[in-house]
Amino acid sequence: MDNITTSNDAIFDFAPYIIVLCIILTVFIAVFDLLWKKKKDKQTSETSCQNDHYTIDNKDIHSYLKKVCLFLSRYASKLIQYGATTIRIEKNIGRIAERFDTVVEMGVLPQHIMVTLWDKEHLHSYSNNEIIKSQGVDFDKNTMLSKLSWEIHDNRMELDEAIKRFDDITARPRLNDWTVLILTGLANGSFCRLFGGDFISMVIVFVATICGFYLKNSLHGKHGWDIRLVTIISGCIATIIASSCYVFGWGKTPDIALGTGVLYLVPGVLFINSINDLINGHHICFISRFINATIITICLSLGLCLGLIILNIKFL
Questions:
Q1: End residue of a domain, out of 134, 149, 171
Q2: The pTM is what?
Q3: 165, 187: one domain
């Protein structure tokens, strides 16, 4: 606590009001989201259950390759959206392609995934370019889709049944947002304790994480704001709230509360997957994911610094 100072007491006098304002802002956005969700549900209820199914008009090889290729493209795109490594995607779609007596080739770019499907004799082929949408990491669906690839291969599942199972998995709702919010707050509070923070610091970090994480999910996930801007805003809000230990003189480890308040924004999955891509020779994927992870890390650092500047908190 002795290592933190403020150079302007006049500015620092407004710190409690800034902290309260950040919390009120989070509550306001939460109420707005509830009202917005009711309106959005009416628009999405008619289309949420619609899925793209591909039908074969005839039995020629081109139609067959087209149907399988489009399915594999969607499958691979969903896997990468849910946070799977490139090597896992290659193995899974290769396993499915083998079941349907075809040979698959895949190329992953930052925003697209290209799939080319050949027959066993390499006489006919079909290629498709699928857009990779930003949908957030979902290890549960990731696991279910990987399990589906084994079931398709081992049980010799028909293509129509495989597509139906795939649509059922991707249509499942994600884990409840409030459950994820609370668990994220508890996890970040545990990080605070792991680094030596006291109980009061843990509680403050818990509140800061909930506010910042909710803003991140709301502004980016629901309202489509740019993830970089949202990361800066969330990091700034979390930093301001995490500084409560220092502003109000609570606890004995305010520096640890400040340092751990933004850890929930660290893009760990992107960093891990990028290294995995590097090891397995997928250098384009490595560069893309590593750059994205680095940009997010820089943005959360900017948010942290912005919060410290607003409250005029300095570390000696």
A1: 171
A2: 0.79
A3: no
